[in-house]
Write a sequence for this structure.
């Protein structure tokens, strides 16, 4: 295990060292200490690394991650795991807004709460939040799954495409074109698998499913009031 | 205003002309705004309103065929390890696969590469055809992030963070269902056949302070190798440029309201933004006040058609220009040879702007496999390369006439304006006077 102390090294040096593992893997396990809220930690990784960040991280932690497993033992700032392609990002604390924004794949687990716009424009990632999510979560979400074990704020799933949303708690309001849908067996199975993969113990049957009504997929004069 | 009928007693209203009335009837019939492509069609103060002061007694010119006039430019040498070096200061603006056919994208790459310049992706990701044919490719980072991935990011020669475009500053992209084919849907991760509306602002940052962190993220992901551009639609250009420089941009792209689009509301195209001519002095002033003119390079786009436009942009302080609509015309867009086909879809060669419908007879703004075949990417690429060379030769001709051995040595002092409006916008004297409207003496 390689320990990287950010009190004596820069973020650029950290990322450069992690990127270098793609060309020649010399150390698969990394511990990052003293992050002190630094931005852009462990971004653009592209190899099967296990990175543990001990402390709080700033904006865009684990951005565009591919294949790596990154755990933040603290809170994260805006845009954690933005545009992630694959791999796993786990946040032990809370996540600020736009967690998992536009992410194409992999799994993001937030063990605390996530702020506004969690999963905005998500494109295939699976996001599991043990706590609550803020307003406008999954706005323009395209594909993947968003699981919320707590409550969801206003306008959940506004202008949604094909994301599967599961919420256990209360939903303050649904956004344009987002509706509650029947929880069928295949959805129970999907949710069961997502919870198991995230290591979260919840009863899938206690969740409600939300998805797109697909009424706004094409421009219609009759829908003008929805915009 | 009289009309073109034979009866001189008939008078057309300047306010309610036939075009205006036709739009009222169309709106009343359909209940929805008009969506179209192309750029602003209204008459605007433009580069035609400026003239060069050729050399005579007080300046001496350079020989057209004997003395060199440099056209090369390096973009993005502020922070990037690998700045972009172009042979000519005319680049190809961002246009998406989806809006354009794969053949058109390939042709843009071929033409740009032959002429020694760069081309740019668009709202839909990077295609292998385009990357394969483009020696220098700028990868756009847009609010939608369609097709965005770190592999393509690292294949790019530069990254352009798009905050807006001149045709629709403050608006997002639009690609109607007719053009969302299997391949486009797959690249954008969307259901086939839907009307796709791109976001108008980035999903994971707001404001210049956040943008500074975002720029650093992109630099970290790409190990500080490539330049990062910021593209803005021309509106509050002075302030936008200052904020973009402060956020850490290597290159600023300012797109005036004559800049084209694949699809948006007509009301947006015609009524939002400022002319390219008015934007350049604002951008240059911002850079100069920050001590960053020529250190952060300025690319200008929006309605550039010929070498005179290129030279005038550079005289006003741009380091390079970008062309979009003109490049498509060079490929064959609106070509009269397809006039019969244009008429079948209710348009005419030279007027066609319904790019959103995907029925382009020229095979450029379409995803229809049969129409696409009409555009030979090799031949179209050659036409584009020819056109780019003509732009460069024309700009060199004007620069030499002004006694300049480098296009970037052109300066505002080489220009005068034909109208009060253009003099005020370009901040150069009205021809034959020393009067620059708005400036004290």
């Amino acid at each position: 295990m390689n320990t990287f102390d950010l009190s004596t090294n820069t973020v650029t040096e950290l990322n450069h060292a992690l990127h270098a593992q793609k060309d020649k893997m010399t150390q698969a396990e990394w511990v990052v200490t003293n992050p002190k809220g630094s931005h852009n930690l462990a971004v653009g990784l592209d190899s099967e690394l296990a990175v543990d960040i001990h402390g709080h991280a700033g904006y865009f932690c684990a951005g565009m991650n591919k294949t790596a497993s990154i755990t933040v033992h603290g809170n994260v700032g805006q845009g954690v795991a933005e545009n992630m392609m694959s791999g796993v990002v786990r946040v032990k604390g809370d996540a600020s807004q736009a967690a998992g924004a536009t992410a194409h794949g992999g799994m993001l687990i937030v063990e605390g709460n996530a702020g506004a716009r969690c999963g905005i424009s998500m494109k295939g990632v699976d996001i599991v939040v043990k706590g609550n999510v803020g307003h406008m979560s999954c706005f323009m979400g395209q594909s993947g799954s968003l699981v919320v074990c707590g409550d969801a704020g206003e306008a959940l799933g506004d202008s949604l495409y094909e994301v599967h949303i599961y919420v256990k708690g209360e939903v303050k309001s649904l956004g344009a074109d987002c509706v509650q849908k029947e929880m069928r067996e295949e959805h129970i199975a999907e949710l069961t698998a997502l919870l198991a993969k995230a290591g979260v113990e919840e009863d899938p049957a206690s969740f409600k499913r939300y998805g797109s009504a697909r009424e706004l997929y094409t421009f219609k004069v009759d829908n003008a009031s929805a915009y | 205003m009289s009309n073109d009928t034979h009866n001189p007693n008939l008078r057309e209203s300047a306010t309610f002309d036939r075009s205006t009335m036709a739009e009222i009837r169309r709106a009343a019939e359909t209940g929805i705004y008009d969506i179209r492509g192309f750029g602003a069609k209204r008459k605007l103060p433009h580069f035609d309103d400026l003239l060069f002061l050729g050399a005579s007694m007080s300046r001496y010119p350079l020989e057209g065929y004997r003395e060199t006039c440099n056209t090369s430019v390096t973009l993005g040498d502020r922070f990037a390890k690998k700045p972009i070096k172009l042979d000519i200061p005319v680049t190809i603006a961002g246009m998406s696969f989806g809006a354009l056919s794969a053949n058109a994208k390939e042709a843009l790459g071929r033409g740009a590469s032959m002429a020694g310049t760069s081309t740019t992706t668009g709202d839909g990701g990077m295609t292998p055809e385009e990357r394969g044919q483009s020696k220098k490719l700028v990868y756009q980072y847009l609010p939608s992030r369609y097709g965005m991935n770190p592999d393509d990011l690292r294949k790019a020669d530069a990254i352009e963070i798009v905050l807006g475009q001149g045709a629709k500053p403050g608006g997002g992209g639009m690609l109607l269902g007719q053009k969302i084919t299997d391949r486009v849907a797959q690249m954008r991760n969307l259901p086939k056949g839907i009307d796709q509306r791109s976001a108008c602002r980035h999903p994971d940052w707001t404001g210049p302070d956040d943008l500074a962190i975002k720029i650093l993220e992109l630099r970290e992901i790409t190990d500080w190798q490539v330049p990062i551009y910021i593209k803005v639609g021309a509106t509050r250009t002075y302030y936008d440029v200052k904020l973009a420089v402060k956020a850490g941009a290597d290159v600023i792209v300012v797109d005036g309201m004559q800049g084209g689009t694949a699809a948006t509301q007509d009301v947006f195209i015609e009524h939002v933004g400022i002319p390219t001519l008015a934007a350049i002095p604002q951008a240059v002033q911002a850079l100069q006040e920050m001590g960053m003119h020529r250190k952060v390079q300025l690319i200008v786009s929006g309605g550039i058609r010929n070498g005179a436009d290129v030279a005038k942009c550079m005289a006003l302080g741009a380091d390079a220009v970008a062309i979009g609509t003109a490049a498509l015309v060079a490929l064959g867009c609106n070509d009269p040879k397809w006039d019969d086909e244009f008429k079948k879809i209710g348009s005419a060669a030279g007027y066609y702007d319904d790019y959103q419908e995907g029925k382009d007879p020229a095979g450029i703004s379409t995803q229809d496999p049969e129409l696409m075949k009409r555009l030979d990417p090799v031949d179209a690429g050659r036409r584009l390369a020819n056109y780019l060379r003509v732009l460069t030769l024309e700009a060199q001709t004007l620069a030499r006439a002004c006694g300049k051995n480098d296009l970037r040595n052109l300066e505002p002092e080489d220009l005068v304006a034909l109208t009060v409006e253009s003099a005020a916008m370009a901040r150069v004297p009205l021809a034959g006077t020393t009067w620059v409207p708005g400036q004290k003496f």
Summary: The two ends of chain A are 52 Å apart (CA to CA). Chain A touches chain B at residues 11-12, 15-16, 19, 39-40, 43-44, 46, 58-60, 63-64, 66, 78-79, 82-83, 85, 98, 101-102, 104, 117, 120-121, 123-124, 139-140, 142-143, 159, 161-162, 217-219, 221, 224 (CB under 8 Å). Residues 1-94 of chain A form one domain.
